[in-house]
Write a structure and sequence with these properties.
Shape: globular
CATH superfamily of the domain at 8-154: NAD(P)-binding Rossmann-like Domain
Radius of gyration: 20 Å
CATH topology of the domain at 8-154: Rossmann fold
Structural class: alpha/beta
Bound molecules: NADP nicotinamide-adenine-dinucleotide phosphate
Number of strands: 11
Strand order of the largest sheet: 4-3-2-1-5-6-7
CATH architecture of the domain at 8-154: 3-Layer(aba) Sandwich
Strand content: 5-15%
Length: about 400
């Protein structure tokens, strides 16, 4: 039984990552409105202990077995009375903490799926940063949100922006949405140079400071592909209604075009504190953590079409949206395998899209009727993708 509280009580899964750190900045700035009650990460337990001490958090989850054992052996590093949990079961337990109102899932990849579903089943608001979850199992996550009457608030900046532009507008009036893409590290590189890029090159994002996987996805534009799939699922759109445009400044985060041709845009500086705060405080608006746009300074806004020949992962993502079924899940699985291999120096940059294309061609598509079938396909697609790394 949840005891009503004046503050929103938040569980943060992925507290040590890039989204996690930005969320902590928002929480620190709004201690009067928000209270952190649970945190989790993969293995950085010492960083979790520091966060627990700073925010007086009493529920801490460590996914990795060894790190969990190390954390338990040094319990004095955590505030007195801390409840330490381990593994996926620990994350699920945190997502259902009776005292929590909102669960923010910012775990890289699809590990956050079970905790996200657990949070929805427990009637928590779900603030979702982990786009891979919706690409893998969007149909089932959205059905769970509807079934339990839970609020699903997008944290991904573009989707949070679309959410803001759509509020109060009937869905029937929407012609299309346009997600903006910075273009990533290789936006202006000619095709022939892309053959020789290194992981260090791909990790230099022009506008955003993010974790390594999403930064590589930005460089291949797979990130925008994943986001188009995420948008289709979150907002119930047809594939052709989900489009993307290059916008190098990352100030306009989306445009929503209505049937009459009018467009609404959402603008703010490229900092994740804006969408995170919106999702955590929704529907309340409070002063932001970072400065707003300053129109006393020159501000250029530029838009260009996406070059799908140089960045085929965007085209492939659109094809999976049209194909439906498990195709988006296969795309995501193959991309995760290929990006990990690229970051480990096992395959060149251009092989990432090749691995995804070959995996899509070799895994049979079908309409899944249950989540188990999607998870089996996800596993199968990862094994197929690994055969194409050689
Ligand atoms: N960064 C952004 O600006 C941004 C924007 C939009 C959406 N997103 C999405 O947000 C998610 C997180 O991105 P990020 O950039 O914050 O990634 P990141 O910096 O790499 O951080 C990942 C976080 O997830 C934790 N983690 C990884 N595997 C885990 C597991 N099995 N169990 C529990 N925790 C685990 C990590 O813990 P350790 O530190 O212990 O490894 C870390 O806290 C991704 O899905 C990404 O697509 C990110």
């Amino acid at each position: 039984m949840k005891v009503p509280s004046a503050k929103k009580r938040v569980v943060l899964l992925g507290a040590t990552g890039s989204i996690g750190e930005n969320t902590l900045r928002v929480l620190a700035a709004h201690r009067d409105r928000l209270e952190l009650v649970g945190i989790a990460a993969h293995s950085k337990w010492e960083k979790l202990a520091a966060i627990a001490r700073q925010f007086d958090v009493r529920h801490v989850g460590v996914f990795d077995n060894q790190a969990y054992a190390a954390a338990r052996a040094d319990a004095a590093a955590f505030p007195a009375g801390t409840h330490l949990v381990g593994g996926l079961a620990g994350l699920v337990e945190l997502a259902q903490l009776p005292e929590a109102d909102t669960v923010l899932v910012a775990v890289v990849g699809t590990t956050g799926l079970d905790p996200a579903l657990a949070a929805l089943a427990a009637g928590k608001d779900l603030a979702l940063a982990s786009k891979e979850i919706l690409v893998l199992a969007g149909k089932f996550v959205m059905a769970a949100a509807r079934k339990h009457g839970a609020k699903l608030l997008p944290v991904d900046s573009e989707h949070n922006a679309v959410f803001q532009c759509l509020e109060g507008h009937p869905q029937a009036g929407v012609r299309r949405i346009v997600l903006t893409a910075s273009g990533g590290a290789f936006r202006d590189w000619p095709a022939d140079r892309l053959a020789h890029v290194t992981p260090a090159d791909a990790l230099k994002h022009p506008n955003w400071s993010m974790g390594p996987k999403i930064t590589v996805d930005s460089a291949t534009l797979a990130n925008k592909g994943l986001e188009l799939i995420e948008a289709q699922c979150l907002f119930g759109l047809r594939p052709e209604q989900c489009t993307a445009v290059i916008h190098p400044q990352s100030i306009v985060h989306c445009l929503v075009e209505f049937n009459d041709g009018a467009m609404l845009a959402q603008l703010c500086p490229p900092s994740m504190t804006f969408p995170i705060q919106h999702a955590l405080l929704h529907p309340e608006r409070a002063p932001g953590v970072d400065s707003a746009l300053d129109f006393t300074k020159l501000l250029g806004l530029e838009f260009r079409p996406v070059d799908e020949d140089r960045f085929p992962l965007l085209r492939l993502a659109k094809q999976t949206m049209v194909a439906g079924g498990v195709a988006p899940a296969v795309y995501n699985a193959a991309n995760e395998v290929a990006v990990a291999a690229f970051l480990a120096g096992q395959i060149p940059f251009l092989a990432i899209s090749r691995v995804v294309e070959q995996t899509l061609a070799n895994v049979k598509n079908f309409e899944p009727t249950d989540l188990a079938a999607v998870l089996v396909t996800d596993d199968h697609a990862r094994r197929v993708a690994r055969t194409f790394l050689k």
